[in-house]
């Protein structure tokens, strides 16, 4: 089982440019939450750990997880409110997020709320702002320390400057977590935010040299660069009619983790033996899945039946 840890929230979309009235379309989301649902839709049996409110919005978040087939026994319920994220698009169609979540349920998670030990998770995935903001970030780092001897650790920094504007904090936190992560998925945009003066190759190769087994740098419509102990690979993107790119990175991560599971990669030794054919299968499938998400509004991740067989 894969344990996915982090935030659960609502993305609020508005295309109305007039001052009054302002209408919003709400979509359930949050990067790790999306990854968990994406894994379930791809035929896996994920579990979700994060703070979910007991308010009306939180009840819907929890119900959706259960409906999608995500294990919810590790969810921490909290009387704190649910985070809201206002999503606006740039002229280039890229989403820009503004978060309303100070002291919200997904942030107010402590070590005392962690899942019980000895659940035999094959992988633990963490990422996005809950890996940085307190107290949840410290709780998740304690979880990694506890689970790492027996589980692969997957990490997606998913930089959100509107949550924490300090790029030095994001930079330090990203490198600290990369040092204990086995599988890293990061966008070129995120790397440009935290390491504007460094080459992507140097950053990714540095993470491989310090012990990561697989680093994937996504480049949006331009595909992905992949790094392993056995080499570096480039993959082109898939051209589609883009509705928006919300959830594309989460789809990529879910597909990547699904692929590793299907290949039987459950330990660091197996990860180190990834060959050219494995990498091609993994990344081509993830690119196809994320491209399909881009054709739909909001984080509507694909189901296994919508994609070619892995």
TrEMBL record:
Record domain Carbohydrate kinase PfkB: where: 3-302
Which SUPFAM superfamilies does this UniProt record tie to the protein? Ribokinase-like (SSF53613)
A family per Pfam: PfkB
Q: Which CDD domains match?
A: bac_FRK
**Mind listing the UniProt keywords for this protein, alphabetically?**
ATP-binding, Kinase, Nucleotide-binding, Transferase
Look up the record and give one Gene Ontology term from the biological process aspect.
Answer: fructose metabolic process
> Under the GO molecular function aspect, what terms does this record hold?
ATP binding; fructokinase activity
Q: What family is this protein classified in?
A: Belongs to the carbohydrate kinase PfkB family.
Q: What is this protein called in UniProt?
A: Fructokinase
**Source organism of this protein record:** Roseibium hamelinense
């Amino acid at each position: 089982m894969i344990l996915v840890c982090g935030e659960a929230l609502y993305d609020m979309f508005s295309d109305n440019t007039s001052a009054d009235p302002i209408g919003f379309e709400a979509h359930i989301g949050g990067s790790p939450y999306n990854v968990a649902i994406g894994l379930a839709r791809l035929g896996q049996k994920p579990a979700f750990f994060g703070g979910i409110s007991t308010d009306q919005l939180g009840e819907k978040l929890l119900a959706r997880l259960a409906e999608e087939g995500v294990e919810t026994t590790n969810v921490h319920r909290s009387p704190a409110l649910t985070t809201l994220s206002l999503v606006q698009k740039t002229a280039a169609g890229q989403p820009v997020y503004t978060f309303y979540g100070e002291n919200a349920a997904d942030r107010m998670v402590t070590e005392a709320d962690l899942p019980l030990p000895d659940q035999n998770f094959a992988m633990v995935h963490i990422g996005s702002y809950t890996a940085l903001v307190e107290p949840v970030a410290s709780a998740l780092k304690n979880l990694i320390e506890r689970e790492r001897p027996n589980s692969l650790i997957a990490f997606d920094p998913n930089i959100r400057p509107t949550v924490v504007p300090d790029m030095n904090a994001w930079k330090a936190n990203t490198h600290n977590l990369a040092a204990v992560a086995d599988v890293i998925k990061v966008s070129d945009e995120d790397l440009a935010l935290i390491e504007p003066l460094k080459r992507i190759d140097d950053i990714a190769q540095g993470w491989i040299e310090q012990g990561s087994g697989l680093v994937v740098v996504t480049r949006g419509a331009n595909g992905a660069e992949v790094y392993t102990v056995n080499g570096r690979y480039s993959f082109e993107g898939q051209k589609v009619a883009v509705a928006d790119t919300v959830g594309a990175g989460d789809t990529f991560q879910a597909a990547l983790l699904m692929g590793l599971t299907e290949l039987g990669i459950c330990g660091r030794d197996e990860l180190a033996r990834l060959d050219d054919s494995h990498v091609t299968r993994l990344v081509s499938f993830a690119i196809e899945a994320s491209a399909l998400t881009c054709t739909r509004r909001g984080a509507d991740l694909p189901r296994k039946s919508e994609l070619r067989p892995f």
